[in-house]
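Worked example 3. Consider a protein that binds S-adenosylmethionine.
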Amino acid sequence: MPRWVLRAYGLRLSGIAARAQKQWLSDKRRGLDSAPEDKLLKAEEDFRGYYEAQELFGEPGAVQQDAFWAALRAPLPVTLRVREPCATTEEKLRSGGWKRRWEFDKAGMSVWEMDSRQYAADSEQRSWAERENRRGLLCFQELVSLVPALLLSPQAGEVCLDLCAAPGNKSLQLLEELAQNGPSEGAVLSADNDAQRCCLTLHRVLGKAASPMSCAALANAGHFPVLVEERDGDPERLPCSKVLVDVPCSGDGTARKNSQVWRSWSRREALGLQRLQRQILLRALYLLPPGGVVVYSTCSLNPVENEAVVLSTLQKWQSSLGEGRGKLPVELLDAVAICREKCGLQPAPGLCSWQVPAPQRGGPLFNQFSEVPPELLEDDRYALRPEMFASGATQDLVRCARFHPQSSDTGGFFVAMFQKAPQTSAGRPAYSMPSSQIEGRGAHPLLSSEFRPVSVGDSAWMELTRFFQLDPAWVQDKLQRGLLFWQTMKGKTEPERVTLALSMAQAVARLWAARPSDGRKVAWARLGVFLFEQLPKGLMNGLAPCRWRLHAEGIYHLSSILRSRRITLTSELLRHLLCADHRQSILTEGTPLANAVASGAGGAETAYHHVCGGVIVGLGDSWLAGVVTPKQLRILADDDVAQALLEELPQPVRQLPSCWAAVAKICRFGQGV
Ligand SMILES: C[S@@+](CC[C@H](N)C(=O)[O-])C[C@H]1O[C@@H](n2cnc3c(N)ncnc32)[C@H](O)[C@@H]1O
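Given these inputs, the predicted complex is written out as structure tokens:
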């Protein structure tokens, strides 16, 4: 796609997408568009030659090699995970031709797949599944990419870091695991160093979780700061006991779902990324508290990006243990055994020897660094370095898990799992509380916004609590624990249109209050779950006594604490409203709709039968955000929510189908928040 089109849509591609785009542009210039076969064959030939030389399958490998190439050429099945399983959804999947991946049942997950050609041909299933994915009921996720969060399996109260998080699927899964394993304490901090991915895709995907335990920030994983907090007057490291580094990689394991990978595969890709991958893994180990666990993953099969990173990082870590910086030893855990036990997939063990390629296509492969000719050591970006080689490799590397496409009909993937030793009597490293904070870079307006705790005396807060009559006990508890925040955009002094009040789990509030040890300010993109937002400027000025409305994301949390502004509709009225243009309907005096609005949002002192402003519109067990103007009621639901609800509405609203109840349940992450 031409760059100007992307720019027009405010998109900046990075990683594989950017490379594919660059490839497309250079192919176009060189006229390769009309002759892609030739290029494809050359790249594939090199790919094949390289991987055959690696002897991925040991001896006897020939049969496996054939199966490997055949599987890599077969399209990947479409896989989805049901976020909150219920009988209705599972019946719909079964009758629609989806097959259950039973291995994941033992991990407590409902995972389904369908042949990709069948999926492409079945437009009804496709549009249903895609809509439910947008709504957050289902999640398209490759089987193997479910593994890292499963291995980490965060427990209640733990703080997890996802250091290369965008677009956010693994963060979403971590949040679900956290919620499943205990009440709403703990947090997942999702970080990415690409501002657009962080503020657009990651922000949107985390919005699906509507979890008070989530937060996101722009950060470079290779320099991610230690977060320091005051505990009993002493500065201490905030323990992030589970860290996921799903690093940027060449992505050659995705060849089954992305044929571009064949076409654009080059040895340089892996050689160029290895330094960054190693730096990120090293940093993750450094950030880990005693006893904590790191999972390193890539969607590549290349040993240079996998075993070589693991080996050289461990060697570097071990060699610096004696340097007196209070470092603790790190152990490589048996990811192969843990995968088999947790989800029944059968990964192959990691390699203990491999070859490193010269950067140019068809060039030689080297076993030892000493074999590399001097000219290949000079290129700054693609130079061959000692840390790419297998020298010093021990049998420990077989504990890394390799997912080859032929074993469980998956994409290619790699996972390694590390654990830091428990605290020794040598004591903890001392930290000081950074006094000043340097402004971080804010390449997106969101990143420059300010978060400030809500105080009981804030006039906007008083206006809001009075208007919606929030449950006083809930309000008192949240204010006392410092869990409610204003978000103010840069340059504004008061909470404004884009300002949101947030409710957060305690651990997220602690993350916000902690100070990065490097003195920099964390560039937060989001914290917790949005509860309220300002009415658009100019809308009902002078008519709405409160300038705040409910945010759709926080509706589950709000539905139980609002004592006022609740409008209960019958299923007929709701259907009528959902089918109306813009999902709004005229309020004509004396009609059932106007009566329902007057009884939920009434006010004798106004010229109308109701008071204008934000409302919550009742759907039996579930609720939607809405706004009442002098003459209309409008529901703030997007097309997907409206369409799904309409399909399920023939039944009376009070007996909502379990599918809709599941959506409400998903939003129950922060129950009791
Ligand atoms: C493989 S993707 C992560 C996919 C993600 N974990 C998921 O499951 O949705 C790698 C991500 O790393 C990010 N990235 C690249 N370099 C980074 C760095 N130095 N620090 C943090 N993130 C980085 C990229 O922007 C990209 O979003």
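Take a moment to read the result before moving on. The pocket of S-adenosylmethionine is lined by residues 14-15, 145, 163-170, 192-194, 197, 220-222, 246, 248, 276 (CB under 6 Å). The CA atoms of residues 626 and 635 lie 4 Å apart.
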